[in-house]
Structure formats: C-alpha cells, structure tokens
Amino acid sequence: MNDRFKMDEAQPRLLDSTGQGIIGTEMDRPDGRLKVCGAAPYAAEFAADRMAHGVLVRATVSKGRVLALNDESIREMPGFLGLFHDGTMLRNSAQGMAGEAPVQPGLRVDYHGQSVAVVVAETFEQARDAAQQLAVRFEAAEEVEVDPETAEAIELDEDSSEQFGDLEAAMAEAVHTVDSVYTTPGHVSAAMEPHASLAEWHEGNLSLHGSYQMLRFNKKELADSLGVDADRVRILAPFVGGGFGSKLGIGAEAVAAAVAARELDRPVRVVMARQQVFDCVLRRTETRQRLRLAADEDGRLSGVGHEDRISQLPEESFGEPTATATHFMYGGKNRLYRKEIARIHRTPSGSVRAPGEAVGMLGLEGAMDELAEVCGIDPVELRLRNIPDTHPETGKPYSSRSLAECLKQGASQFGWENRPAAGSRREGQWYIGCGVASAARSNSLVRADARVTLSADGAIVETDLTDIGTGSYAILTQIAAEMLGLPASKVTTRLGDTDLPGASGSGGSFGAGSTGSAVFLAAKKIRARLAEKLGCDVDSLTLKDGVARGGNVEKPLRDLCVEPICEEAGITAGKLGDDYEQASFGAHFAEVAVHADSGEVRVRRMLGVFAAGRILNVKTARSQCIGGMVWGIGSALMEELGHDPRTGHIITRDLANYHIASNADVPLIDVHFIEERDDQSNPIQSKAIGELSISGAGAAVVNAIYNACGVRIRAFPATPDKVVAGLEALGL
Amino acid sequence: MKTELTVNGVSRDLDLDPRVTLLDALRHHLHMTGTKKGCDHGQCGACTVLVNGRRINSCLTLAVMHEGDQVETVESLGSPEAPNPLQEAFISCDGFQCGYCTPGQLMSATAMLEEAKEGWPSHVSESLSNPGTLSDAEIAERMSGNLCRCSAYPGIRQAIARTQGDAGGKS
Ligand code: FES
Ligand code: FES
C-alpha cells in the first residue's frame, strides 16, 4: 500500500457526528462468548496430522560454549525423533518491532537459561523425558559478570544522557530539595498463556500458529531467523493469552518448531514450560534511580535530575527508557539525565508493560511525594503547581493534557481532603494512609493498514492486528459499525493472520489508535463511495441502523452494496507527531492499611482517573486501566525477580516464586475517564491507554504506606521485612 | 494404560501413557481445549476442572488416576450460543481480557459457590459454621487460587456476586 494517510494535519471529529452511537459505549466484547466457553483457540490448541512435540533444552552456564551436544544419550528412547541445535536457535526473543532475527549465537552461551536445542518426539511426555535425559556438556567462562551493582562493564548511554541548565547550581540554591535513590527489581510479563508455536511446512511455505503481539514484524523476524523469504511465512494468532511485551518479538520456540518441522517433514509443536518463559523471554531490567528535585519555597521546581542504571546483555540494543516521563511531566529549567547500562550475563532485558514509565514513575512520583513532605505542601497541590505550559525541554505544546483535571477530579472522588496527617490514623493493629501519584504514558502512531468490506450481509473488518486481551475485536468492530451505520452484530472483525493487511501490532499502547485509524479510513472511503451512489455530498451523508440518508434520498444500505464495496486504507505517523508532545495522563489514589506488627500492606481502596483522548469502548478501556493499576499494586508490594548471585540465573522462575497479585490482594478498583479528544494524535482522536494505568500506580501505593506509618520505602517492592525494619527505625 | 473417564457426562475410553496429566488428556487426547495450561505446576489455576464435583488443578494429577471419575470442564457450562448465567455475567462485567485464565476461573467459581452453599468457611469467614451470602472479601479469598495476569479480578468478583444474587444467594 503506498497511499497511506500521513498524520500531518488535525482531522475533523467525524466520529462525533456519525449517528450510530456505538463508539465509546460499554459494548461487550464480540469475542467474549467464545472465551467464556473455552471455544477460542490459542496457539497450542490447534492440531495437525502427524504432529510431533518439541521441548526446549537450556544452557546451565552463564557464559561459555556448548562443548558436546548429540543425541547419543537419548537416541534409543521411545518416540525419539530428533535433536536440533543448528545455528538458527535464538539466543532470546526479538525486541519489539525489530523486524529481523535476534542474535543466533550458534554454540555460544550468553546466559544461564538460554535455549540451546530442541528435542522432538512423538508425544509431549516422550519429548520432555528425552530433553531431561539429554547429556549436554558446556564449557563455562571463568569470569562472568552477573550483578549490575558490582559489574565493571558499565556503559554510559550517551543518547539518554543530557542536561539543560545547571542542576547542581539549582540544587545548591533551592529552598527545598530531594536527593534520593530508588531501586526497582526485575519484572516479567508472566502472561497466563505460555509461549507456544505449531509449525507446518507445505511446499516450502511455513504456516505457524503462534502466540504473538505484532504479526507484521514477527513474520519478518521468523523468516529472517530461518533464512527464508518473508512471503513464504504466514503467522496465525487469532487469540493470544496475554502479552504485556513478552510476545512482541519472535521467540525461541517458534524458530525451534519451524526448524524441526522442516527437518522432520511433519508438523511440530513447541510449548514453553512456564520456567522456560521466565528463562529465555525478555524480562524488565532492574533499575537504580537517583532522583533529584530542587524547588522554591512554594514548591515550584527549578531543577529535576533523573539518573539511572539498568542492565542488559552485551550486544542487545534495547535499553529501558527509565526517564521517559520525567522529561515531560513537570517544569523546572535545570535538568539532568544520565543513563548507565551494566553489561551482564542475565536473561536479557526488553519491554514489559510500559517500558520506561512503569518503573521510572515509581522513582519520580516517589520523589515528588518526598518533596511535598519537605515543602509542607499537599502532594496533589504540589503536582498541580508544577504542570508546565509547554514541554520543559523542547518547548513543544502538548497535544492534549488533562493531568490537572485528573488530579482534581480524582481528589474529590477519592475524598482526598480527609487524608490523615502522616502516621496519625490507626485502626486496631493497622496504620491507615492515603497516597497519590500522577500517571503518564507517551502516545505514538505506528504504520497500520486495514481492509473493510461492506456487503448486503454487513461489514467485514480485516487486519493482522492481534487482540491480546486489549479489546481489539471490540473497538475495531465499533469503529466500523459507527462509520457505516450498522449495529455491531452486523460487523465481523477478523484478526491475527499475516495474510491480512499489516497492522501496527499490539504494543506500546498504539494498537487501538493506529490500527483503529486504518479501519476508520477504510470505512471513510466506503462512505465516500456510498455518497456517490446515493448522489449526495459525503458531508451530508448519514448512515444509521442500515439506512443511508443524504440530500433528500433515503435508501437501505444493503441496496447500495449489492456488489460488495471493499476498501483498504493505511496510516502512518506525520508532522503532528513531531510538532506536539503527545502523551496520555492520569492520577492514581490509593488507601492502604499497614500492619503494625507484621508489616503486611493491604490496599483497601484504589481509584484512577485517566484522560486518553477519545475512549473507544468504556468497558474494555476500564479493564485495561484496572489491569495496569493491579500491576502497580504488584510492583509496589510483591513482584520481584530474584537472581542467583553466582550465575545470574532467575531463581524465581515460576508463579509460586514470582508473586503476582491475586484476587485477595486487590480491592474493587474505581476507574473514571475524563472526556477528551486529541486532534493531533490520529483521525479518531484517541491516545495510548493500555500502559497508562500502570505508570505511577505503584508509587501511589508506596506513598500511601508513608502516609500511613511514616516509613518511606525506596527499594521496591515494599515487602513486610522492609516495612518492619522501617517501623523499627522509627521506634514504632 | 487404559482408563475410562466420564467427561461432561459422556464416558470416554482412553489409552494413555501413564505420565499424561488429566489436563493434557483433556486438551490433547480428547481435544477439549477449553481447559488451559498456564504453569503445569499447580500455581495458577488455569487448568481447574471439577472431579466428582470438587475443583482441582488438572495439571497436578495423572489421567490414569481417575478411572471411573466424573470430570466436568468449561465445555459443560454452556455454549457460545447459549452461555450459562455465570458465563453471561463474566461477559457483561468484563471479567476477563485475554480469556486464557477464564475457563479456570469459571470452573473454580462454579465449585466455590457450591462449597459456600454447603457452608464451607474460608480464611476470612467471620463464622465457621455459616458464611452466609458471600461478601466481596469472601469471593476474593475463595477465588485466589486462580491467577489472572490481565488482572480482571474486580470484574470476576462482580460477575460471581451477580450470579449469586441471580440464583437467590444463600442465607
Ligand atoms: S496449569 Fe494447572 S495450576 Fe497452572
Ligand atoms: S483474562 Fe487474561 S489472564 Fe485472566
């Protein structure tokens, strides 16, 4: 497609004048019935004749080489079909939007847990047994750095290190200052569906049922990994059991399945065990962040500093953009950023829900809470005072920004004015307190194409976007129904197949805005064709409940599309992306109870108010926000990757040891949206939402702990041992 | 090994490797893929099914241990054309996003409501003999064996509470 619409100019708010009234509503997910009946097929649930089963084998050294790897020890085992370990095995999943193969290290081992081979057998049980019995000999390097705190290989990331004005001078002159170090541990996505691929070759063409987020990119990554032409690869992912970044890029199991299937000339399925997902899918890096804030006596910022250290494997390009939000959240002339990357041999790092903001805002919003305390200013008021008019570094205007409204409305709905003074409210053995934090997540537009076909039976929407739980099926259906004046039941949305027009993929919170716009533009073309057929001006055309009206004519829509009308459209980022600072904003409020003896923290209430442009479906948007806020609770209180100090390998490699929030950890969360339209973001005026709500959420919880009992936790997560130590230090 | 199971009221004869879990027997031998595998280690609840009326993690038990047992899976609750009230409530409360944990949540909730009816207390029950109508805290506690990374917990609880109300609840 070469006539993609470029977002150079603000577009009319067409979706506000179409009359169907389905956009933005609480429509149920069209895929819901399949999901609740167990009838939605996920990657590992497709079957194929003569299918064989593969199980991955991992490296057990942190750095070194595979010395001996052959099937001698397992050749005679029942059902054994083959051991594959040629140079195509992936070291780790591709980074998001790579569009090319990740590192394929051959016999080199770069971290403990790297996949080095796949064992294939007739049944899963046989393959698993053989993979366990396989004797592999490794040569281990003598010296290997696995700890970012003590590593000698520290790189300064020049691109992320910059300064404006003089922060040191601002700190020296300021009336109030904060200078604190926050640390966050590694996290993982832990999507409930483990990575799974079923590969089948047919006359040199590969068809892969996989669990992936960004098919347009994944197809290229898989083809490149295998050394075949991308046109020969098709990926299908109609349902994906969660992604959160872990399925952005092609993973080891897909390539292993494809290689084995090619060699054996039969379909092969490889499903990662939960532990393997921890081992070889990208994690979120741990961070150490130094936050410096300088303010005058009214709490107005004159300086902001955000320095951080993250970790990554040598040769891997991604670096957690920890300070992303710090650049545009609050004012202050003097600013400093410095990023260090520790090159260590742990499972490499990559994108986990809201890379950058998710952990960066734990630091920033914690430091803002500290500043409020030293200034003696209410934390909501402090934030309101520091909202800059334009981007404090580039001077660009914000495309839309309802941060102040979110803070004010949230404060009023939460009952913020009743917040107790720190450490003053106690119910039995529990200290009670409240905390606030701002939320923000950058918005972007990524190339996306879609096709819409209108026929007498209704409309069909087609694009290779995935629905990873985000609600793509719902919102694309709504956009088409709204534009074409059809009830949602007359629109069928087909997703997750690379044979369909290439979408943005689900990632970076840009799926709905980007691919939704492509659907919108394709439907808009159909509207123009309908107006022509009706003989009216497109501006006077109304489409509602299957009836077209324009000029003085009224006709059933089906009479106008006896011959189906099919249109494709695409969108790509334009000038407005450069001219405006684009982000979604929000505010989190939390009430916690802290147990005076055990240090246990319970979140009793949580409320979020968000502004993300047009909300395409209130129900699915709310669920996204609840999800992010729960992740905030997780990062505040329990989520923590642990690594063996000798080998760096992940020791919390299952769901019993890597704790995510469960039902009992989570209150009934309250979510509200501020009515907003963003004319600069895209033609449907929406903005990023999927990751907005995790950003800052954990800080609200930890700030509430401080308000409850006076213990300031700067080393996430706030586990009971740290809280108890804090209480003891206060003599409580 | 030959094993006979009754799955959703239908008797099924299986000839299985003794290492096959009940979960894999359902998913890959009977091709009933509604039941999900999230961890294969009893840590997530995605594989929850009812065996003789009680909820269990089907990944933690071998199929051949269930000779003659009655197994109920998500496929027994309702169909996409006619979902049952609990399934309907999950849809309208958006008690899921990706849907992968959902069959396990539904089976767990189904059994949990029965347990409550039978008067089983939980860790948060005020009285050991009569938990009464399930409060939100009760539902949260009793459903905490089923993880949902999409974190649809509030919707899950609302859906269950609503169904409990529809069914007349339990005093
Ligand atoms: S798959 Fe059985 S508990 Fe997770
Ligand atoms: S709906 Fe995705 S894990 Fe529960």
UniProtKB/TrEMBL annotation, chain A:
Residues 37-142 form the Aldehyde oxidase/xanthine dehydrogenase a/b hammerhead domain. Transmembrane segments: none annotated. It comes from the Bacteria. This is Xanthine dehydrogenase family protein molybdopterin-binding subunit. It comes from Pseudohoeflea coraliihabitans. The lineage of its organism: Bacteria, Pseudomonadati, Pseudomonadota, Alphaproteobacteria, Hyphomicrobiales.
TrEMBL record, chain B:
Keywords: Oxidoreductase. The keyword Oxidoreductase applies. It comes from the Bacteria. Residues 1-77 form the 2Fe-2S ferredoxin-type domain. InterPro entries: 2Fe-2S-bd, 2Fe-2S_ferredoxin-type, 2Fe2S_fd_BS, Aldehyde_Oxdr_Iron-Sulfur. It holds the Pfam family Fer2. PANTHER family: ALDEHYDE OXIDOREDUCTASE IRON-SULFUR-BINDING SUBUNIT PAOA, OXIDOREDUCTASE, IRON-SULPHUR BINDING SUBUNIT-RELATED-RELATED. This is 2Fe-2S iron-sulfur cluster binding domain-containing protein. It comes from Pseudohoeflea coraliihabitans. The lineage of its organism: Bacteria, Pseudomonadati, Pseudomonadota, Alphaproteobacteria, Hyphomicrobiales.
